[in-house]
Request: fold
Amino acid sequence: MNETHDPERRSWLASANRPEAAFPIQNLPFAVLRRRERGERFRPAVAIGDQALDLAALAASGVAQLAALDACRDGPLNDFMASGPAAWSTLRAFLSDLLRVGSAHQHAVERCLIPLEAVEFAVPARIGDYTDFYTSIHHATNIGRLFRPDNPLLPNYRWVPIGYHGRSSSIGVSGQAFVRPSGQIMPAGAEQPVLAPCQRLDYELEVGVFIGQGNALGQPVAMAQAEEHIFGLCLLNDWSARDIQAWEYQPLGPFLAKSFATTISPWIVTMEALQPFRSPWSRAAGEPGALPYLASAANDAAGAVDLRLEVALQTARMRSRGEAAVTLSRSNLTDAYWTVAQLVAHHTVSGCNLQPGDLLGTGTMSGASAGSEGALIEITRGGAEPVRLPGGEVRTFLEDGDTVILRGRCVRPGQVSIGFGEAVGTVLPAR
Ligand code: CA
Reply:
């Protein structure tokens, strides 16, 4: 930890110092954005209070000559992500210094601020490859029980961080609206499948992991270096068509059931900002440890991230009546069976090369207790137990016009709480 984490540090921007602020000076997450409806180019920014600090404008202002800042003159963030932890840390310290009470450059920096209510976002990186994992053993067991009642958790689960290669072209940033997918579905009792719009559309509450520095093809990343390759975390909704999934997933795993849309939050919270919220990596009694290539003392001591997650739903009717979204579940990234470092070490152990801007998903983050299930299929027991919403509506799966909102926040006594903002997505009718 360093002075950028100092809980006493305050910004000259009053909105950053409010206790409920998602973006205090201790956070400084990165996004790519522009002012709405002005035809501007997208460029990198960090969030501070209710404002975005435009890094392209800051670089052009001549406040400082800094290579790390020059890498942020244009979006997306891939070049800056590739520059590595020393450059990330240098820019964070520089920005923290500019934004803190007593900065000599307040007036120059004020001219580079854009109100968050006036911006629109882009996906923050060119995402070459996207891999989705399955790191909640609670989710894996809940889902496995529905798909294979006699054999819910396959024997490899406790040893292999299970994942599959997802689709990067359909990843969108918060605000994404997508068409309900159609696909092959095998109706119960039918002789052959039909092509039809998905009737069991679901969300998945996940955390996204953006890769910073890549690794050369053929050179695995060891656990000791794994986090040096992680730029930061965001929220990720892996929209899932459960009826298409049930018919197609064997033997090679998810394909079209997951390929039609994935929504991420615009802000990437850096690993350095998350430093005060690290936790020991722990598993329930009786669970095995990890093979040596997935183990390290540092991972045992602080490999997990204490990130509180929640998912909320707002139906079209609730929206038309001005009713707020209703929370469906709450969980925590500490519910994961594998840490983010283990995901990187495992992904590269074959020699597979990760590249700057690649995205990993943790998999649906469900906890052990009721109320912590990160997908509707778990909450409704496969659609058997519908959810009753406060306004009287009922859901087994998502309906057209439904908006799903993911939220995340790190809270720890003695530290300034930091937020992830939101990942918001809306279902449009099938074509
Ligand atoms: Ca998933």
User: Anything to note?
Assistant: The longest helix spans residues 85-99. The longest strand covers residues 418-428. The two ends are 51 Å apart (CA to CA). The pocket of calcium ion is lined by residues 132, 204, 206, 238, 361, 363-364 (CB under 6 Å).
